[in-house]
Amino acid sequence: MVKPGTRFRSLVPPCPSQKNNSSGSSSLLFFPLGEHAALSCPALPVLCFLPPWLTPVVFLKACELEQKIGLETSAGRNCPLGGAERAPASPAKSPGIRDKLLLGRRTEDLADAETPTAILFSFCSAEEVRTFFQRNKDQYLALIFEKSDSFVGREVALDMLQYENVAVRRVLSSEEELVEKFGVTTFPSGYLLLRNGSFSRLPVHMEARSFYTYYLRTLSGITRGSYKLNATADASNETNASQPKRADRSKVYMADLESTLHYSLRVEAARAATLSGAQLAAFKCYVATLVKYFPGRPCVQTYLQNLDSWLRNWTEPELPRSALKEAMKNNRDASHPAVLPTNVTWVGCQGSEPHFRGYPCGLWTIFHLLTIQAAQSGPDKELPLEVLSTMRCYVRHFFGCQECAQHFEAMAAESMDRVAGREEAVLWLWSHHNEVNARLAGGDTEDPNFPKLQWPPPDMCPQCHREERGVHAWDQPAVLTFLKAHFSPANIYLDYAEADPVPVAREGTGSRLGTEGPRVEREKEEEEEEKETEGEMRAPGRPGSPEPRRPSIVRLNPKLREAGEDIVDLDSFSEQHFKSQALRAAAGRRRRLSKRDTIALDRAAGVGREHRLAPAVLVREEEEEAGEGMRRSPWLRVLGLGFSRLDISLCVALYFLSSMCLLGMYTFFRLRTRARKGRPGFPMA
Ligand SMILES: Cc1cc2nc3c(=O)[nH]c(=O)nc-3n(C[C@H](O)[C@H](O)[C@H](O)COP(=O)(O)OP(=O)(O)OC[C@H]3O[C@@H](n4cnc5c(N)ncnc54)[C@H](O)[C@@H]3O)c2cc1C
Q1: Distance separating alpha carbons of residues 518 and 533, to the nearest angstrom
Q2: Is the dihedral of CA 280, 286, 292, 295 positive or negative?
Q3: Does the reported pTM lie above 0.90?
Q4: I need a surface site. Which of 16, 176, 233, 556 has the fewest CB within 10 A?
Q5: Which domains does the chain carry?
Q6: Which residue lies with its CA nearest to atom 16 of ligand 1?
Q7: Given this model, what pLDDT does residue 113 score?
């Protein structure tokens, strides 16, 4: 449970300015190996040609010298601004050797100016800005104007490294030409340049890292590298059957909620041939909670009430699917029609491709909605776990993604029981959903158009976010207020929902319930019902598709799995992005971007849930393989030099050759001297 005052952990190493004993080099842990090795010590190639006994001395001297040169260069020769603007090097903020080599230099002065390392540890000049779009294909250039002791620019650059079409550069406050050109008056402040030369200030609520990063990531055309590849690979054989719908993410859509209910009740829960024991109890509990708290249209509420009473009357230990199916049919002819639409239409939960989002998104939305409704309709301390326990039971017994269910169960087992009030339950679900978001962010199954953010993002709820000495923190009372408004019946919209079979009654559900979709023929509906509940279960959001829907699971970050319950990792995105970039760089082309780590949610009816771990394991293995270079042998880690295996092998080979060469020369001269000594002298004349 998120307790008041919980600190939200940042996985990106804290700014050196906030650390007391930082070496400042920890952020380099995840650098791509190539750069890492190259930066470890520039003397490496020289060392390879030295005989072993000279190595340590020369190595240390060379590194020392290089370090000095780096600093002197940045202080004077290359930097027209002089030493004044050099990045600080106080002992508390002292950067590591690699940082020192670059810190404070202009990006353009560096031979490897376009590498992440160069970008992060240097600053941008007017000339670089002028020629940027000629040299780069990016659509946007974000400039973070800041003072030399600020780290915001570097942090934002770091956060955005894996994103394409946008570049981030820091500009120092002393770069007069640029400061004047952009009319910068506050530091830090961010500006966005476009290819056509126009620019504007980043419209953020707060001049802080998370606000900049969030804004940049949501710009149109910004993609994460891997997704571009994914999309290209998929483009040829994927067709999105459903029409894209206009959705506003600040709204909740009835079409999503009803589609989710239909799928969960008639497909997911009715998958087993019979329901009994805990499974039957979980189902009854789910329906009863829906009746109590789901703010549905009257026909849907009647439907749920009828089903609930029918279930209450069912006293047999086993409930066969055929009986349940019959009980779950719509009844349009009754004086109070009981109808739960059978068409599946995703609006707010629509993915950019059919295999993204959809049902799991709808399920989260339903349960958030239920926790909020429960919090607003009873004494706070009364049955605080009512909705959360229902969700836990539903997920455990019915949710088609078994691995997801296991993760959720683990989270629930750890802290759900400690929830003592209904509002706390709302926040528990919110924070744990964010934990899941953090774990899945950057994974292959994340919809590129809907990146997994810590929710609500700053533009949806600026007052929910705070920065305390550069570290992100949530304002929980503000979050609660926001959640209550977002998941309120007044914010549920009827766009694309099936026409209400009882139009008169619609008035009761509020003015938001306005627009309507075409009414589905009853026969067609019944046909669909049959299709949905029998035989092969089809994908929601993909009508007629022969393929089962495959919502997917992303492998877990074990580090995050270990994380305590109270921690919400806002910055885990950056960490994950950065790490995955390092892994990609190390693995080169080997990485298969994929649906390989996806598992099928839906399986043949009656079989229940299936759990395919193999693909996830494969990916994990692949990831381990990719990260091999990072897991160096202990003595190398102790040295902390960042040599790759290739470096070491080359060195060993060259050491061996040079030693052999020396030995050969020694033997040759020795033999020659001996031969000379032994040879009789020329007879004297
Ligand atoms: C219980 C459960 C466990 C899951 N576990 C896994 C798993 O282990 N691995 C896996 O690959 N997938 C898992 N999923 C699926 C995954 O969480 C997403 O639902 C899915 O990837 C679709 O993501 P989405 O982008 O639509 O957003 P979702 O995460 O599904 O969110 C849906 C909507 O809820 C809102 N929202 C987002 N975050 C919050 C929040 N913190 N609080 C309140 N509202 C929020 C947003 O409006 C968002 O559009 C799980 C789903 C559920 C329901």
Answers
A1: 23
A2: negative
A3: no
A4: 176
A5: 16-230 (3.40.30.10), 247-533 (1.20.120.310)
A6: 360
A7: 54
